[in-house]
């Protein structure tokens, strides 16, 4: 009787375990891969052009809804464009903080790639100074609630 009860309990445990594995492999998975993040100095100085390339390597469509720089929300996706967030940079000269999708689409279908260009002015950006040699963490946030960071150094 005990052997039959243990066998049934083990069979139920294995069934739940297998159901979880099957759901993991067949369910929709959001995964964004930040392929690269590079910064180049703008001609004439005064800031940098940051280029972020991201690819949807998951099995479901996803949308990049926010961009963070060093933990501060720099941009938010609204009405099919990136608008300024909480990051405030005191620009030196004519360079203004901005972001745009240079190639690709947002939302990203599985397999799609997007190139985002961020213009970062040189100077005080609140909790950090944007100066040559400073490391920045650029983080893409998706509507699925996941964050995908990439570290780069300003030249």
What report would you give on this structure?
Strand 8 and strand 9 (129-130) form a beta hairpin. The mean pLDDT is 89. The protein has a single domain, classed as Immunoglobulin-like, CATH 2.60.40. It has 155 residues and is of the alpha+beta class. The protein has 1 helix and 11 strands, in the order αβββββββββββ.
The total number of structural domains is 1
**What is the rounded distance between the termini?**
73 Å
DSSP helix fraction: 10-25%
- Average of per-residue pLDDT values: 89
Number of helices: 1
Largest sheet, spatial ordering of strands: 5-4-3-10-11
- Helix vs. strand class: alpha+beta
Sheet-strand content, in percent, reads over 45%
Provide keyphrases for this structure.
single chain; 155 residues; alpha+beta; Immunoglobulin-like; 11 strands; elongated
Helix and strand arrangement:
Blueprint lengths: L1 H25 L5 E10 L5 E10 L7 E6 L2 E7 L2 E4 L13 E6 L9 E9 L1 E2 L4 E2 L4 E8 L4 E7 L2
């Amino acid at each position: 009787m005990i052997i039959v009860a243990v066998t049934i309990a083990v069979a139920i445990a294995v069934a739940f375990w297998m159901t979880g594995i099957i759901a993991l492999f067949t369910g929709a998975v959001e995964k964004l891969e930040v392929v690269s993040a590079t910064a180049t100095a703008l001609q004439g100085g005064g800031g940098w052009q940051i280029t972020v390339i991201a690819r949807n390597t998951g099995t479901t469509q996803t949308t990049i809804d926010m961009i963070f720089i060093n933990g501060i929300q720099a941009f938010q996706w609204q009405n099919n464009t990136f608008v300024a967030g909480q990051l405030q940079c005191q620009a030196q000269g004519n360079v203004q903080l901005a972001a745009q999708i240079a190639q690709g689409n947002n939302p990203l279908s599985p397999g799609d790639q997007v190139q985002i260009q961020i213009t970062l002015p040189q100077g005080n950006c609140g909790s950090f100074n944007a100066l040559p040699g400073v490391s920045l963490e650029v983080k893409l946030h998706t509507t699925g609630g996941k964050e995908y960071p990439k570290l780069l150094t300003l030249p």
